[in-house]
Specification:
The chain is built from ten helices and no strands. It is mostly helical and 247 residues long. The protein has one domain. One of its GO terms (biological process) is snRNA 3'-end processing. It comes from Peronospora farinosa.
């Protein structure tokens, strides 16, 4: 599965498919030698056609978002385009992670009945969308919130979330510590904020209390653990919506 994450090689043009790759990497100025003149003209024609097609897709998507405002997939598709606009550069200057973040949160809210349904968020929202949501949070400086989502994946994926926590410990938002339930994340945070460089006794005490909380007891039945995870995730998403959608 492709992950749109800064730590992986990715160029996600999923909404456009193969045409997007052809358009994105076709030369702007074809060679004018006699051997390639015909090929160059063909490339320019195809490139122009593909640019028109991408523009049509964008306008159609805008129309779908307006006309079917309660359909999560169109908001998610719009977020994909805002996060990964068509560009030859891997990280486009036209990327708008803040707008994409809002679209992903709207899609998640609609898909889960505003997080009121008892079904788990991760059973409705696929992993690739959660990774892109995490990337948006990372780009707007919400490192702790971005790392939280990696708890939803297989343990071998934890390393990406742990790496995010190490990027800027001085900017950690303690309000999001409560949404960690996997011990590797909490233990890393304790180590970071116990170190002389990022020492924060208040953070360490808060994190230690979270580690010792009954909900995170490893001897709890799996059903209790799952219920706790679902509750934490619902509260986490509601908090994100309060912060990023309130305006």
């Amino acid at each position: 599965m492709r992950h749109a994450c800064d730590y992986r090689v990715s160029f996600d043009l999923t909404p456009y498919g193969d045409l997007a790759f052809l358009e994105a990497f076709a030369p702007d100025t074809p060679s004018t030698t006699s051997q390639t003149r015909t090929t160059g003209a063909t490339v320019l024609f195809v490139k122009t056609y593909q640019e028109d097609l991408v523009g049509l897709h964008s306008r159609a998507l805008e129309s779908l978002v307006c006309r079917c405002g309660r359909e999560p997939r169109w908001h998610c598709a719009k977020a994909d385009v805002l996060l990964n606009p068509l560009s030859k550069r891997r990280f486009s200057s036209t990327c708008d992670p803040s707008a994409a973040l809002k679209r992903y949160l709207v899609a998640a809210s609609l898909a889960t009945n505003y997080f009121a349904d008892m079904v788990s968020v991760v059973d409705i929202i696929d992993q690739s969308s959660l990774v892109r949501l995490s990337q948006c949070l990372l780009k707007v400086g919400a490192h702790v919130a971005a790392a939280i989502l990696y708890q939803c994946f297989m343990p071998e994926e934890f390393k990406y979330g742990l790496r995010i926590l190490q990027l800027a410990p001085e900017s950690h938002d303690e309000a999001f510590f409560q949404y960690f339930w996997e011990l590797p994340f909490l233990e890393l945070l304790v180590d970071l904020h116990s170190s002389p460089k990022y020492l924060n006794d208040r953070y360490v005490m808060l994190l230690t209390n979270l580690i010792q909380s009954p909900e995170l007891n490893s001897s709890n039945p799996s059903s209790v653990v799952k219920d706790a995870e679902h509750r934490i995730l619902r509260c986490y998403f509601r908090d994100l919506c309060r912060i990023y959608l309130s305006n």
